[in-house]
């Protein structure tokens, strides 16, 4: 592995911890993390930040908190259509129930 590849792997392996540490704290840490990622992407524009489901948007911004203290916006937003997802899940459940009913009918004939 080349030195450059090793450094890139090191950044990738460590940045998630920096994000978790800095997310939501009211210090210079969030802006330092943002700057590090921005600079890294200047060198590696195709580099993608790995998703972290623990990083969520703020639910309440107090008077001393700034939106920029939260790093959830670093991650790509996934537009999920809730209604379409619920419909798909309902269809899947109906299919499972129908499959169970068919299997039950084969095992236990009507009238028994």
How many individual helices? 3
Uncertain spans: none
Range of helix content: 40-55%
| Rg, alpha carbons | 24 Å
- Estimated structural class: mainly alpha
Please give the largest β-sheet.
Answer: none
Q: Please trace the helix and strand order, writing H or E for each element.
A: HHH
Short description:
The protein has 112 residues and is mainly alpha-helical.
Structure notes:
This protein is about 55% helix and about 0% strand. It has helices at about 5-20, 30-45, 80-105. With about 110 residues, the protein is mainly α. It has three helices and no strands. The protein folds into two domains: about 5-75, no CATH class; about 80-110. It is elongated, with a radius of gyration of 24 Å. The longest helix is centred in the C-terminal third of the chain and has 26 residues, at about 80-105. Helix 1 (about 5-20) runs antiparallel to helix 2 (about 30-45).
How do the helices and strands line up, and which of them pair or pack?
Blueprint: H1 3-22, H2 29-43, H3 82-107
Helix pairs in contact: 1-2
Essential attributes:
112 residues; 0% strand
């Amino acid at each position: 592995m080349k030195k450059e590849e090793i450094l890139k792997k090191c950044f990738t392996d460590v940045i998630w911890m920096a994000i978790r540490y800095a997310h939501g704290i009211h210090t210079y840490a969030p802006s330092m993390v943002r700057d590090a990622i921005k600079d890294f992407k200047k060198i590696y524009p195709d580099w993608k930040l790995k998703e972290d489901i623990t990083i969520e948007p703020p639910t309440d911004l107090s008077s001393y908190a700034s939106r920029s203290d939260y790093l959830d916006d670093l991650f790509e937003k996934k537009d999920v259509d809730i209604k379409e997802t619920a419909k798909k899940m309902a269809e899947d459940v109906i299919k499972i129930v129908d499959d169970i009913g068919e299997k039950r009918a084969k095992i236990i004939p009507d009238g028994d």
